[in-house]
Write a structure and sequence with these properties.
alpha/beta; two-stranded parallel sheet; about 35% helix
Length: about 220
């Protein structure tokens, strides 16, 4: 089963890279990514609708005549997701789901968190870990996809380790902040090793707005 998943991941990544090399990135693609990056930044820093307009322009430019580019990005992202999931979880007892559109919200009542891997093309994730019930000492959550808006609230009684990356967009982890292109934040709470309840967060999106707050 493990070799089959690995071969599937490598096949997806290879197919995506082949398509990407066949159809090189041109000026319009670069312009689209810049519009999207600026749009994400404006959405987070300004209350008006300018950011959404810029993001919309970027998406339209990217999709207009760039279907093969989008397909290659999706295939590569999905292949990397399979590989990361296999590496992140120590055994096969974890929840894995792939969706085109994802809206995952857990912020109203107590909920149970298990080892989980989620991938989506467009995803919205909101997790309030102050309401979470953990059935083991350490839980690993992999969130990955193409376009993502992720908000996670972490209470002080949960130790957390964060590896977050976004090719385009913004990452906020406590006081750490990265904005623009090729963003990456690696952070671990001081109480992580001693805490009875620990969560590892592996978050990666091509275009993402990732916000992890501590309360």
């Amino acid at each position: 089963m493990g070799n089959r998943n690995r071969n599937t991941a490598l096949l997806l990544i290879g197919a995506g890279l082949f398509i990407l090399l066949e159809h090189y990135v041109n000026f319009f693609t670069i312009a689209a990514l810049l519009f999207m990056a600026l749009g994400v930044y404006k959405i987070r820093s300004s209350p008006d609708k300018t950011g959404y307009v810029l993001l919309g322009v970027g998406v339209v430019l990217l999709f207009s005549g760039h279907f093969t580019f989008i397909l290659s990005v999706v295939l590569i992202s999905l292949g990397l997701f399979y590989m990361k999931s296999k590496q992140a979880h120590r055994d096969s007892s974890y929840i894995q789901r792939q969706r085109i559109l994802e809206s995952f919200k857990k912020d109203k009542e107590p909920w149970e968190l298990k080892n989980t891997s989620m991938w989506n093309i467009v995803g919205e994730v909101y997790m309030d870990l102050s309401l979470v019930m953990l059935d083991q000492k350490e839980t690993t959550v992999v969130l990955q996809g193409v376009f993502g808006d992720v908000d996670i609230i972490v209470p002080e009684f949960v130790g957390v380790s964060v590896h977050a990356s976004a090719l385009v967009g913004q990452i906020n982890v406590g006081t750490e902040r990265e904005t623009g292109l090729v963003n990456k934040v690696v952070w671990q709470s001081p109480n992580f090793e001693k805490c009875d309840q620990r969560v590892k967060l592996l978050v990666s999106y091509v275009v993402g707005d990732i916000d992890i707050k501590f309360v």
